[in-house]
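Now read these lines:
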Amino acid sequence: MSPRQLLRSLPFAAILLVAACSESLDTTANCPTLCTDTRVVFRDTTFDIVQFDSAYSGFTGVGERWPAPGLPTGSGNSFLYESYLPLISRPDSVDVRQVLRFDTLPKTFSASDTTPITAVTGSRLLLVVDTSRSTIPAGPTTVSLYDIDDATVTDDTLPSLLAARFTPGRLITQRTFTRAEIDADTINGSGRLSIRALTITIPDSAMFRFIQVRRARIGLQISSAGSASISIVAPSVNASNLVPRLQYDPSPDTAIVPWGVATRYTPVVSNAPERFRAQSLVLRDITPALNAGTLAAGGLIGTRSVMTVRIPRAFLDTINVVRASLDLTQRPQRTAPGARDGVRIRLRLGIAGPALGSDPRRLAEFLDPTLEAVQLPSLRLAAADSGVRSFDVGRALTVWRAQDPSLATNIILYGEGETFQEQRPEFYSRRDANPAVRPRLRVTYTLRREGAIP
């Protein structure tokens, strides 16, 4: 057959092939390989997958870092970290303050020049604020610094002792600023539009006094005529130009470089947890109590919810997931502060492992996306809303299919506006007496076909 004859015969062959595969058959049994069943049947089902759930509050009152003995590192010392430190003042409800510890202040001109420091200039505390996580009013806002050190106390991390030291006699200095001033003080190279510098000048005499004892433990308080909050970049963030620092110039000689000292904590008690370079203090919290049988996320003090879930592995192995959602029924709070204002609620999938263990509250404490966790899509809600809220968990099903079935899987519900927005949406939990409002997994899927050529 000549090439021209072959080309002429191809359309006819193609017609025969198409006709064979488009034949209307009640079954594909007579043509299992060449003619796959082109019909796609979508199925929809729901599961009660939540085995345990609970809400926990008070996440702004923990230390800046926590030990994680099961998380391997080269040095043998492993920790989990917080990224931001909140300062909050709500005159009618919340007062959250911070403690920064600088336990290694140099007493010489430099590491190579051991000339003792006899006076300093240019003393200041350098902070970095994330304005996207802060609520700074247009009018005056004040940050006050206090000397809260007491070398006679063995355990200097007890919140009750620290809170009592915010007195007028211990006041070091103050800085009053406006939102416009903060917005104008940008940081070159920060890579984020919301990052701003907050510099607080410290009297040189006070800084020299700290240097003499080689440490400074500074309490921070924010105040305003109304509500105000700022989120400070924490010491654990891996960026030396963003973490809290004390700066002072040890000599008028311009050849001597000013010291820039980051936070460090040296515990008096040898077995004290080494996590208190920074520490949040909750002095007041009159956030309304949660309703019984309720899950919640967000709020000024930070409420997070944990759901321990299981889904039949055999079911996942036989389907192709088209869509999957965790359906939560929202409990309306129409009289709550800011009830009509939106706040973004997020889900995180956490796999119980050596670093986090199985304690539900500990699972909710750390929201680091790189640590045994998968962040899922979010929803923007208002506390006054009601009805079913469907969170996309399709990615979670992919993780569940691959994970060790002996490990418990947890979904952590938290608010993106935690510590700087009042809104705390609530949802009915699996403990509610009405089964119709309990959390459910809804899956749209198709059955897998084996042996056919697609």
Summary: The chain has two domains: 44-56+292-447, 94-285. Confidence is low (pLDDT under 50) at residues 1-30, 66-78, 368-372. The helical segments are 3-21, 159-163, 179-184, 204-213, 313-316, 360-365, 394-402.
